Every structure is written in C-alpha cells, then in structure tokens.
Amino acid sequence: xxxxxxxxxxxxxxxxxxxxxxxxxxxxxxxxxxxxxxxxxxxxxxxxxxxxxxxxxxxxxxxxxxxxxxxxxxxxxxxxxxxxxxxxxxxxxxxxxxxxxxxxxxxxxxxxxxxxxxxxxxxxxxxxxxxxxxxxxxxxxxxxxxxxxxxxxxxxxxxxxxxxxxxxxxxxxxxxxxxxxxxxxxxxxxxxxxxxxxxxxxxxxxxxxxxxxxxxxxxxxxxxxxxxxxxxxxxxxxxxxxxxxxxxxxxxxxxxxxxxxxxxxxxxxxxxxxxxxxxxxxxxxxxxxxxxxxxxxxxxxxxxxxxxxxxxxxxxxxxxxxxxxxxxxxxxxxxxxxxxxxxxxxxxxxxxxxxxxxxxxxxxxxxxxxxxxxxxxxxxxxxxxxxxxxxxxxxxxxxxxxxxxxxxxxxxxxxxxxxxxxxxxxxxxxxxx
Length: 433
Prior knowledge:
- This protein is 39% helix and 22% strand.
- By secondary structure, it is of the alpha/beta class.
- It has two domains: 2-57 and 362-410, Urease, subunit C, domain 1; 59-348, Metal-dependent hydrolases (TIM Barrel, Alpha-Beta Barrel).
- Strands 1, 2, 3, 4, 5, 15, 16, 17 and 18 form a nine-stranded mixed sheet that branches. It has a five-stranded parallel sheet with strand order 10-11-12-13-14. It has a four-stranded parallel sheet with strand order 6-7-8-9.
- Strand 7 (116-123), helix 4 (126-136) and strand 8 form a beta-alpha-beta unit.
- Helix 3 packs across helix 16 (415-432), helix 12 packs across helix 13 (334-341) and helix 13 packs across helix 15 (381-387).
- It is globular and about 65 Å long.
- Pfam families: Amidohydro_1.
- This is 5-methylthioadenosine/S-adenosylhomocysteine deaminase.
- Keywords: Hydrolase.
- InterPro entries: Amidohydro-rel (IPR006680), Metal-dep_hydrolase_composite (IPR011059), Metal_Hydrolase (IPR032466), MTA/SAH_deaminase (IPR050287).
- Residues 55-403 form the Amidohydrolase-related domain.
C-alpha cells in the first residue's frame, strides 16, 4: 500500500504533514515529502488517499487477559480480592478451550477496531488463544497462567511441561507474530521456589517473564509481612526474576526503592490506569517512574475490569490522571503517552523492529479519520490525538503490512459469529454457577 499525502506521527513523535509512506513485504520501505516515481509507486499496489487522515504506529497492549471478554460486565463494583476470589475464579474454572478461543477472537476484533496490533496476554488455554491470534493475523506475547501454592519445584507442576511445549512449538511461529513468555501470576499466588525456578529457566532460554506486581495496597503490605519487609519488587529481585526481560503489570503501590530497582533492572512497567481506577486500586506513580528512567508501557488489563480493549481510552486516562495526581499540567506529555502505547509496548514484547514509523520497521500501522468535529481545529495533531480523538476514529489497522480492519470490516474475523459464540458461552457459564 502507498499512503498518499497523509499526516504521520513519526518515530520522534512529531507530526509531519503531506507525507508519502510506502509499505511492501510487511515493512515500511519509503517515507518522503514527494510521491515516488510512477514506476516505484506501482510496486506498492493500492494508493490510499490521506486527505484528513493521520497515520500512526499501531498500539501494543502490554497487559491483557483476552478470554476475560467472556466476563464483560459480570463482576462489577467490587474490591479486587473479592472480585477475584468470589466472582472471577469460580467463572474461570468453567472456561473451556473453545470458550477461550472465541473470546480471544472477539478480543482481537475489538483491539483491531481500535488500532491495536499486538498484545501481551496472560491466561490459560494457550493453544486456543494462539490459534485465534494466528488465524486473525495479529501479534501476541502469550504466557500460560500459573497459580502455585504448593512448596515444590516448578518442574513438578503440570504447567511446567505445558509451557515447555508452548516454547518449542510456538515461540516465533506465524512469521514471528507469536512469542512465548513465562508467567508468575504474582507474589501472593506463587511460591519463592517456583518464582526462582521460572527465573532460572527463562534466563537459560533467553525469554521474558510477565507478572503482576503491587496492584493493590493489601498485596504490597501483605508481601512485606510474609517476606521480612520485602516489597513485591524487592522479593522478585531477590529471587533473580529481574535477571531476564520482565513486564511487571500495575506497580501501583511501588515505593521509591522499588522504582530505583525497576529502573536499574530495565523492567517494563505495564500501566493499567482504567482498570486500577475501576477496581479502586489507586494511581501508579508514573511521573516518578518516568523521571527515574523506568520503561513505562500501557495496557488495558482484562475486559472484566476495564471494560473494553480501546487502548485510546487508556491513553487519555493515562495522560490525564498523572497531570491531576502530580498537580503538574506538564506531566506525561502526549508524546510520552504515545511512546508508552507504541514503542515502549513493542520493546516490552521483544519486538525491536516494531512500534515506530521508520524505514525498515514492521508495518504495524493505524489510520485515524481526522475529519470529525472533535479534531477541528487541528492546530496540533498530537494533542488532538491524545485528548480529543477517540479509538472510534481508527478507520484502518494494518499488521505486518496486511490490512486486518478497514472502514467497519474485518478481513480475517467473522465478528458476527464471534459475538454469538461469546454470548452463548457466557450465558452457559453463568447459568452453571
């Protein structure tokens, strides 16, 4: 595809107008202020009219639980531990592999509709989730959810063998779109032995770990009581978990010492501002993290606590709440927010050639329709993108150069069937509880 005469948000998060962008063989090959020659232009195939459009990098959701689409609107107005133990866990115990497949497919449709190209997913039924993402053409970092209460080696848990199979069969599959991470759900749903074992294995294999950290005050304080004053960050650091690439979701209650460790160890923090507010968990100290050089990415969390996969909504809340919480209107600029949603998210997934509009980068792109009233006047496209635009303005989503969503149509997903399947399966599970 050749995007013609279009505004773009470049790799430095600066808006360039009247640009031509050529995509071929899954990568961005040309960016220029002039149209390619007719012979060159013909190589790209379709010419896409960029009038009143903005071309941006697609978004990388750094923390999700895609099959929880089944629970949308089910467990509401509850504190996290009550929500988790009394509502979510009993529901999840009845989710089958096919349930997870269709819920993931619907989650992918929703993400593509709002310009997300890749997501880091922590859940069960990994084969079915991988099948859905492979079929629909998106990217995913998948990890098989692990809850470990018994004080025994990781190798004695059935999940260990499952994850080794996933690594062998699927890491790098679908032309690199699928990547496998290891999982430690959290400090309170694992043991020191298991966490240390997983850290060692991940290091040996050169793979990453996805973990929940200090999501709530009670989680943070109870960890200190259990482990001689160690916070979750210090606890995991003492076990070698941060010796490998780690995406730590939430980090709402981290303290100053924790932030120093996160920065020193190169941990990616997946901020989930909408979910944290909805569950009453608090506000992550993002400004202090950024000031210390922590890698901050952006996630939606699961639909059961968000309740959607529109990362543009999280982008808006992410930037806005940090200004209010810090009493500083200059905190988290639109450029910083967009970096969290794009380049930082891609890097958290180990996708070095993704997350930016640059020659040679993977063509993971989204086009927004900037002709609506909320975009006028367009004195600053970037400010409008974060504070005035909406996920609903996305009119095209491309992954590795393939258009997967365009103008209300999904090219690889039967959305009508996915909706019907999810609706029936949710009703079945609720009726059995």
